[in-house]
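Example record

The entry below shows one chain as it appears in the dataset: sequence first, then structure tokens.
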Amino acid sequence: MLTPDTPGLTRFVRLTLLMLGLVAAVAPATPTPSAPVPSGVAAGRQAENVVIITIRGEIDRYTALSVVRRLKIAEASGADAVVIDLDTPGGEVVSVLEITQAIKGTTVPRTVAWINPTAYSGGAIIAVACEEIVVNDPARFGDALIIQAGPTGAEALPEELRPKFLSPLLADTVDSARRNGYDEYLVQAFVTLGLELWLVRDTETGRTMAINEAEYRMLFEGEPPRSSPIAPSIGRNVLADRDFARNAEGVTDEAVDPTKGADPLATPPPPAETVSGGAQLPPIEEGDRAFRPAGPSVEDLSGTVDLELDEPTRRPAISEGDRGRYELVGYIQDGNGPLIVTTENAELLGFGPGVVLDDDELRQHLGASNLRRLDRSWSESFARFMTILPVRGLLIVVFIIGLFLELTSPGLGLPGGLAAVALFGLLAPPMLIGMANWWEIAAIAVGIAFIGVELFLLPGFGVFGVLGMIALFGGLVGTFVREDPGGLFPGTEGAKRDLLYGVVTLLMSLVTSGIGIYFLSKNVESLPLFRKLILQNPEPGDNDTMLEAMSGPVATLRVGDEGVTTIPLRPSGRMSTGDGATEEIHDVVADMGWIEAGVRVRVIEIDGFRVTVEPADGEAGPDVHEGDA
């Protein structure tokens, strides 16, 4: 019998502890993750390092540039997944397509769209470009109809522009659906009207898909039900409309029961000969790359959309032989409005496996250890601010006034510096997004140069001044017109609208600049800033500025008056009129060439800013140098 005091027991205990220590030393250590990794995450969804790219507000060229930049950062950092966090009303078609192409072309293994909480229009197109969609609660996405800005606000796209805009958008959206496993009929309902759809389930595979009326009639007997839509048309509460009509007209409940006949208030079915999927359309088998129109409203685009599609369809073809294989899940929508998906019906319609409320739940959903957000940078936000029309108009005013003061008062420096800063603010941000090209910058430079030639080298002709003004203002207007980098929509209404906005902004800026220049010309000596920059009591022979002449005794001169130059006119200078107590000094400009001091000259022209003179004898004497520059 062993007791605790027995030496054998003591040796046994020591030996046991030693063996346990050896086992612990050689056994593999249990890893300690940097963040708790949830269990039950599907292997295809697991992502260790996740980057969240936010898209907030209207989508424009700056948004596209920013998203592309942040995608490159995610790629360089070795991210396992990119989450596009969307809260947007949509935006420009070209910018949206740039983003979708960048998402599809990224080297990051997994892309996820997070509807947080809304992604209308272009936001929905971007969401479909991602491999997975998750939604907040509440959340809404869809309604990607193309509209254009008109004088009174948003307007429907003119019919003649519909193929040009809708075809590439439809092709991109269907391509995204085929890549990522979304229903290509449903995504077509995002971007166009007139698509009435029903949801059915394959009883053999459990797969659900949307079908149109022609396919419904192949699969089921009787009239298609048109009550209680899963996704009621936007702008119209279908159930409320029917309740009102039922109460007003005495329609019975049985009349709208899909099990007892068609709804008399439903949209009438289209004629049989125009129904998509009818005999006039060739059958398309699963795996074909051809476009499969969800309804007659997009059949006319089939030819152009086909050219853009490379991904084969995953949608099985429906035929009469499939009767009994499918069961009806519900009526999706009547087609009177674009499809809008909500948190309640997202999973039923095949968008999104569940609800994600915040970053912590997103981490759990992806099984991520590291989660980092990449928001738009301050410089991108500042560049966007600098292209707002009121800001651009103000910059044009500063540029014109500063340029005028510097050209008419050379040597001040400060107005020229302000003009240069304003010009940089006008050109740099638009250059980033294709709103300023080399020819526009060249036109502005040539315009400034020609105006300088008119003022200082060849005064009096006017040709260089006119050409300079045309080039300068033409270049400024050109910076308002956005370039389409993909060449999708040349000569569109969008370019005409940009041009109109540019012309109106420039005209308003010119008027404002003219008022500012007039005010400065009348009050230049009373302004503290300019009082420090301009000599108050010039001595004879000093090279004063033309700006002072505008507030001086120019009005006392008349065409034909004569005087004597007190300093050389090269081409601007000064002349003296009168004698003794009546002597007056005036700033003048030589009509042609240079005129030396002490030469008698005659006034030949007077305008608001300049007095032009020529030698009084009408000939080029020894003190006159014609053709000098």
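Notes for this example: The CA atoms of residues 241 and 247 lie 10 Å apart. The longest strand covers residues 110-120.
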